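User: Predict the structure for this protein chain, please.
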Amino acid sequence: MLSSYWCFYFSAVSVAIILCPAGPVHGALFLFFVINALRVSIEQQWEFKVTTWKILVACFIPFGTFYIDYKILRYIQTDQN
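Assistant: Here is the predicted structure, written as C-alpha cells:
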C-alpha cells in the first residue's frame, strides 16, 4: 500500500506531506545487520555465550554497536592478505 508510506506532519502554520519510506528501510537494514552478525559469528567460530549474544543484544540498544565495537570487536583478529 502506497498510502502507508506517507508521513503527515501538522504544524500550526501549514500542513506538509512528504514521502517517508524510512520505516521499512530501517527495518530491512536492521534485519540485514542481524543476519550478517549471525553469519560472521558462524564463519569466525565465535562462542555464542561469549561474543555473539552480546552483539545481538547491543543492536537493540541505541549506539550499542559502537560500544561493542570498542570493547569486543577491536580485539578480534581478522585475516588480511
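The chain has three helices and two strands.
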